[in-house]
Every structure is written in C-alpha cells, then in structure tokens.
Amino acid sequence: MTSHSIPYGHLRTLFFDVGNTLVSFDLELVKTELARHEIVCDVQDLRRAEAAARPTVSASLSSERTTETLSTFELYLHVMLLNLPAQPVHNESSLARVAHDLVQAFDAIGRVRLWSNLLPQVPETLEALKNRGLQLVVVSNSDGTVEELIAAVNLRDLFDSVIDSRIVGYEKPDPRIFEHALNVSGASPETTLHIGDLYHADVVGARAAGIHALLLDPYGDWINVDCELVPDMPALLQQFPKP
C-alpha cells in the first residue's frame, strides 16, 4: 500500500495509455529487423529487454523531452538493445548506431503496424471493466494515429473517447492532456484512474491533474516508486470489488 492508495470501489472512469499498456511491438517483426543488424534473440528476450528499458526512458522525460521526440524513441531502443543477451559482434556504441537505424526503419513501417500485438487478456479485461459500468478512455502520446491503431486491433468500440496528443496539442506528462480528457469524458479527477507504463509520463502527469494513477510492471522493474503496481491487465481487474 502506498500513500496514494486508489479507491477502486469509487472509480467511475479509467484512462488508458496504449503502447505497452494495451498493445506492444510486433516482436516477430522487431526480431526480423534486428537480424538484419546481426542481433540474435528470441521474442521472450525482446519482451524482457523492452520492459527493463522503461525506467531509464521514463527518467529522461521532461517538459522539453517527451515520449514523442525521436531522441527519446532512439534512447528507448538503445536501452532495450543493451538489455538483450550479449551480442558477440556488438558493443554499446555499435548498438547505439543500430538504435538510430531502427528509428528510421520503424518510421517506414508505421506505428499502426509496429504496435500491433495485443497484450494478454486486454479485450477480456476491458469488456469486464466496461460491464461494471466504468467509462473507458484512451489518453495516449501519439502521432495522430492512435484511434486507427486501436481500431486495427479491434479495441475501438470498447472506448468512449480517444485522446491523441498530436490532435489535442499536449503530451503527457503535461497535465493539460489529462484535463482535456476529463472535459471530453465529463469525468471527475477524484473518481478517475489512469493506467500506463511510464512513471514520469503517466503517473506524474495524471497526478498533476488530480487523477489517480497506476503502473503496469510485468517484471518488477520499477523500484521505489510511490504508486501502485500491477503486472498486467488481468491483475488490474482483480483490484476492483467483485460485482
């Protein structure tokens, strides 16, 4: 229990991040792209390395550096590569060059295709939460394609509203994107919970708007953070009182 305990029984609205909350990279696609750079790994290696990169990326965020800057995405990919099993033909500097090349390759692939892997039990969990009368809203830092992205994985109909940072002009952790989401949804901050994967974007930003916040932490990588943690979406559902 933290000093920021969440009143699950009184919540009326849930805000959701998208990347690494509802969907992840298509890891087979990423694995294939890495093989072009002589990086050998399996999907589980990638999954673990990606999660391990999140605290470092989160700590780099500021008002000048958000998740949508190319430098942040490149840092994210570089730290992910550093967390893979050791690669005989690579070192830290060569992996930095690979990360730079991957930014260009993934930009060509497009965000909707890259982030096309539904995380486990996401549709079922969202449906269960919606069936309990909760309003569900996407609040995502994106490039104007997040609505298309969630439609491509058949999640769009589960959400009452979709807030895309490119469209509204504010990016997490700027509290104004959360305030915009509150206005659009008619929700009250005291009865709203935001679920995400990056402390400095999702928790700091939501709290600045008076909203409760929680992090998904599948491998226990977040140490000494002052917020509640759950490993995945089914575990989130278990926090709510049974109907």
From TrEMBL:
InterPro entries referenced in this protein's UniProt entry, alphabetically: HAD-like_hydrolase_domain, HAD-like_sf, HAD-SF_hydro_IA, HAD-SF_hydro_IA_REG-2-like_cap, HAD_sf
SUPFAM superfamilies, per the entry: HAD-like
Signal peptide range in chain numbering: none
CDD domains tied to this protein: HAD_dREG-2_like
PANTHER family: HALOACID DEHALOGENASE-LIKE HYDROLASE DOMAIN-CONTAINING PROTEIN 3, PTHR46191
NCBIfam families: HAD-SF-IA-v1 (TIGR01549), HAD-SF-IA-v3 (TIGR01509)
Official protein name in the record: HAD family hydrolase
Species annotation: marine metagenome
Organism classification: unclassified sequences, metagenomes, ecological metagenomes
